[in-house]
Structure formats: structure tokens, C-alpha cells
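Fold this sequence, please.
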Amino acid sequence: MSAATPQSPSPHTVLGSGPAGTELARELVRRGHPVRLVDRKGDGPAIEGVERFAADVSTVEGARAAIGGAAVVHHCVNVAYHLQAEVMPRVQEAVLAAVATTGARLVVLDTLYPYGETGGAVMTEAAPWQATSRKGRMRAELDERYLSAHRAGRARVALGRSADFVGPGVLDSSLGAAVFPGALTGGEVVGLGDIDLPHSYTDIRDVAAGLATLGERPDGDGRVWHLPTAPAVSTREVHTMIEKRVGRPLNVVTLSEPRPFGPFDERFMAEFAEMFYQYTEPQIMDSTAFERTFGAAPTPLADTVDATVTWYEEWLGSR
């Protein structure tokens, strides 16, 4: 994905050190920015050019400490699925209060949850927010608060929405540890819902590059953007790409309803049940607006699959 080079480096703070936050930190370093990567422990493998920092950003005090000195704050925090409805609003409140105090711009990594069930309609930024699930309504309420804070002049905010993550370092997604290890070893591979329906997947590197671009481009503030995402194909087609790359047929176990499988334990699947509609209807995200506005292009899915298989080969070899 291409991106504009910033006129001058500015300090960026990334909240959350999961796959998106970690890849974003690396991307920002590549673009020449000083970067602080924040999580509760402040540890983890060293990343050249990145300062690790420990803070609890669900508190105003922790958020202020974490973002001190930053010109741009990227909110990539996520929590265990069963805690999201409780914790994510607290994180929002603390982070918004902190950036309101410091004046830093805020870029938020977001999901497609606010749209709810679409009946297979293509999701653009103009699609209505009609979520009925608990987590979907929560995400929609958070997003409206972010945008309201921007409109009121309390904060400068941009939202970047992603489809399901896939790519190097991504474990906990529908195309993560429940797919690639089995593909490489001949074990079982999960397929959620109807794998013949088109489904959008966003390369984690495009997530990072898109968020970095929003951090560098204040002209993107005040609205939702769909981060660059390759055209949707069926999950079965993605499986075929993986088969070609690994040189063996996949042993696919299709889950027609949510139940525990591999890394998806009983507690996760119980919480995930209300979101399972994403795999029983076409899930098609359009990122044309971002691509045209910022001169970006998503990574082709075949390239994403190749890079992901290579990463999992190394990951499995190190275990």
C-alpha cells in the first residue's frame, strides 16, 4: 500500500500492542516518526525505534501519562471479547479526556460492527448503522461519541474501520491460528458459516499503513474511513489460495453455528454467537473512498496469503 511521506516527523503514541498496534508502530518508524507503544505491562520484544511504555489507559491518569508529548495518538486497544462491552467505553472516556487536555489528534481503529446485518449489501462509509447485537450497538455508540467530540471541538478524531484481520502476526481471527497451522501440518482448518459467500479480509499491514496515513493527514479528521481492503472473495477461494501455497488440500471443518474450535474456546464462542451473522451473509466492505483520497491500494489477497504462510512457517518452527 502506498502512502504520502509526512513533511516532518512528529511523535506518535500507539495504544495497544496487539497485531494492529505492533504493526502500526513498525510502520510509523518506517515513516520516520518517534513512536511510543503502550500496553499494561510495557514489555515484549524490542522494536527498533519504538519506546515501550506501561500504562492502564482505561483510567484518565493512565491515558494522560501514556500520551504525554504525542502529536498523534492511535487507539488500537482491544480486550478479551467477553470484556469488551464493559471495558471499551471506559477506555474511550479516558482517552478522549486525555487528548482533550493535550490537543493531540486521535486516530481510532474501528470495526464493521456498527453496520449490523446488511443482507449482503456492500458496506461503504455511507451505509446506515443498524446494529442490533450488544457489541454492535456498543461500537456504534462509541463511534457516535468520537464524532460528537470532534464536532464539538473537544478533540480531533478520525476513525479507520477494518474488515477481519489477516496477515503476519495475526493469531486470533477467522483467518489466523485456526487456519494456517492446520494448513501447514495437515490438521483441521476452521471455516465459519457459509464459506462460499463473499467475505472481506483486511491485510494487517494495510490496517497499519492506513492508520499511519490518517495520523499524518489532518484532512481526514472528523469522519469514518474504510481502511484499504482487497475486493471480497469467498472464504473457499482464500482456502484455495492457501492450498496452492502450501501444496496440500486443506482439511476444512465448517462450523454452521458457533461452537468451540481450536483457539476459539467456549467462553469466546458464547460471546461471539451474536456476531455470527457476519459469516452467514455476504460481508463486503468497500474502501474506494480511502484509496482515492489518499492514493492508496490494498495488498492483493494472494500476496497476503503468501506472506502469512511464510510467517506461520517461521512461527511454527520456533515453537
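Residues 84-102 form the longest helix (19 residues). DSSP finds ten helices and 13 strands in the chain.
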